[in-house]
């Protein structure tokens, strides 16, 4: 796939295609983490308002194939949320391209540190984040006490 085939743009999180991507992500997470107590943490539309965060969708040939968000936690810190690439589109550089755009959005918000939470059953995601300069950190915020959480950070 050529990068010219992809478009990464800000998108309204409440649209049908955005909600369908999030629903697909939640279904995949439910399959990976069927255990009692597994939690798929929220992302409120208000957190995507200008100056607070951004929700991005990747399209390929007009089809929505991936999504991700950055939300401000505090003055310097933003959290990466709802990163998802449709299974049929994986291993084509889409997640890396999306991550780069989310980092650019974070910088435009004045964020100098990105944190994220992924899960123990997602080695592909963990590998991507490590290759892109994220390091593991202790659980933070709502992830403290979550037995399946892997938390990471990257300084921008």
Share of helix, binned? 25-40%
Largest sheet: 7 strands, mixed
Shape assignment? globular
Number of strands: 7
C-alpha Rg, in Å? 15 Å
Question: How much beta, percentage-wise?
Answer: 25-35%
**Between the first and last Cα atoms, what is the distance in angstroms?**
28 Å
Under CATH, the topology can be stated as Aminopeptidase
Spatial order of strands in the largest sheet: 1-2-3-4-5-7-6
Any low-confidence stretches, pLDDT <50, length ≥5? none
- What oligomeric state is this? single chain
Given helix and strand content, the structural type is alpha+beta
How are helices and strands ordered from N to C?
EHEEEHEHEE
> What count of helical segments does DSSP give?
3
CATH 2nd-level architecture: 3-Layer(aba) Sandwich
Regarding CATH, which class? Alpha Beta
Q: Determine the mean pLDDT.
A: 91
Per CATH, the superfamily is Gcn5-related N-acetyltransferase (GNAT)
Report what the structure shows.
This protein has three helices and seven strands, in the order βαβββαβαββ. With 156 residues, it is an alpha+beta fold. It has one domain: Aminopeptidase (3-Layer(aba) Sandwich), CATH 3.40.630. A seven-stranded mixed beta sheet has the order 1-2-3-4-5-7-6, with helices on both faces. The model has no long low-confidence stretch (mean pLDDT 91).
